[in-house]
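Box 3.1 A note on notation
Throughout this textbook, protein chains are presented in two layers. The first layer is the amino acid sequence; the second is a token string describing backbone geometry. Keep the layers aligned when reading.
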Amino acid sequence: MIQIAQSTPLQIDWDEWQAPLQQFCQASGLAVSAYAIDGVRKVGPLLASRAARHLDTAGFWAIDGPGSALEQRLVARMATTALAAGAVQPDELFHGMRVCCLPLTRAGHRYGVLVFGWCLRDFSSPMACEQIAALVGLSGQVLWNEVRLEAPLTDARFATYRELLRTLAGSLDRQRDTIDELNRVSRTRDLFLATVSHEMRTPLSALSMRVELLLRTMPELPPALQTALKAMRVHVRQETAMVEDLIDAARTLTGTMSIERVPVSLGRIVRDAVSTIEVHAHDKQIAFSVVPADFGDHIAIDADPRRLQQVLWNLILNAIKFTPEGGAIGVLISRAADGVRVRVRDSGQGIAAADLPHVFGAFTLQTQANASGLGLGLYIARSIVELHGGTLTVDSDGVGHGSSFTVYLPLAARMPVPG
């Protein structure tokens, strides 16, 4: 059921109709106009025939012209008439010229009307041309000279043109409906991200703060309670990390993740990342090394330091997680012709050849040593690297032979190394 009136007007971009209607006009030879449902002409009149252009020079489609008056009556009738799906509005005859209209609908609401035609259904006569010309002060003979050079439009051909225009209008309206639905989904996504950010981050932050406060200010707590609080602290941190991963993954999937590039030393990023998590490697008695010893202080890049630290944290923490005690992890920094590579190599469990193509997929979990997490870290890491114009790749000789993740980043052009 078509609803003709609605409380919230649709936002219509009438410019979208200009090109397709112009093409239809040129192909069919019909005059075409598009009206809003309130009777205001938004597109046209688009004219192709010599007779129509001749009438237009005399103001036939001016605001107070007879052509506009008829079209507005048709639009007003369409605005108040309920039509069944697929129903055809009867043609209107104007001194032998045929005029027709089609409703425009979006999201179940009729928002406009296409008025088209202004063609002769059979060979006209000088008398009919005199009648039309008299309405706008033209010479009937001159109009007749234009009209008689144009073949009339048969009922069958006019019906074909009408169906073509109906298909064109339906396609554009369905396309706009799809865009409207995508916008609705986008707004829902934004609301979800805002809700997750507030409703989950806030209580987790408060809980973490209270646990830390108890551990720092009440050393006399029973050992069992201290152990429980420390375990709670670990779980809260894990939950917070998963919430952050969900938010980042949603932004990546929808293309809304962004970076803020600044001139920065690669060494600063690597040093800050390593200093935060190196202790985890020492706790597992894993040999940890960075080459060169200056961490790449001399290499300048144009990057988002916080996001690249996030990438390195993920790669190094994964290496620690999947490397047994007594193993080794190395971070190797090397210059390329037009960029820099940061390679994180470990002697851990490795990756089977069949699993390598899926490592960077969303919600991809390793089958071993992955008791926590959502399998989003590498998916997010690769997206961040690609936003920097770089690549993130993986190599492994198979299960039990370790793995190697390589970040490639383009160098900053003619940029001094920050001090």
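The chain has three domains: 15-182, 200-253, 262-410. Confidence is low (pLDDT under 50) at residues 1-8, 414-419.
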